[in-house]
From TrEMBL:
Residues annotated as transmembrane: 9-27, 57-77, 84-102, 108-126, 169-189, 195-214
Entry annotated with the keyword Membrane: yes
Keyword DNA repair applies: no
One matching Pfam family: DUF1275
UniProt entry keywords in alphabetical sequence: Membrane, Transmembrane, Transmembrane helix
Protein name: DUF1275 family protein
Amino acid sequence: MKNDYHDVIIHYLMAIVGGFFGGYAIFTRMNVFGSAQTANLIDLVKALLGSHYIDSLIRIGAVVVYILAMIIATFLTYRTKWKLQYLVFYMEIVCVILLAMIPEDINPIVSLYPCFFVTAFQWCVFKGALGYTSSTIFSTNNIKQTVVSLTEYFLVDDLQIKHEKLKKGCFFGGTLLCFHIGVALAYILHLFFAVKAILFLLILLIINFAYFTYYDKYHNINIFIHPKKMV
């Protein structure tokens, strides 16, 4: 039960991080969403059909960066004993610093290559909590799960099932709330600090890292090696 509580807290904290990254990308880089590939792939098809080959190459590069992050995360999951949550924190700190250094007049897709990489990596490592698969970097499935679960709560009669549906709906709803808290923070800070607003994310990442480390040390969990791989 305590582990479940911990997992939910860290999931929500990472959802705030994901929301901040997503909001920052949209607010500072010409409405480009730096945490997913749907819009980029649609625009890639448009660029290819319109013979905009430079733009096409830039967008293909974004896809490659996104996929590469997933490949590396998956490889490290299967081939190492590392606790990848810590690696995510380190990588995102580096990403934040890089994003703050990239000028506003750079092509927005290129400027978000670091964001594409780390958010994809985060998605592969922080996959959910309480047995639910939930993204911390975008909202579509979280909206679906919240709405469907709460609708089912009012439709079913079995009390045990109702409890489970309510629990699920609240979990996914909480993820949505935290994600958009991150978006709101990104917007407010963008108004005052523009591209440099991303540096404030360092504060949240340090808080997340400190909480994660404290929990592991308090429960005598190895902070570098995943306990299931300590064979």
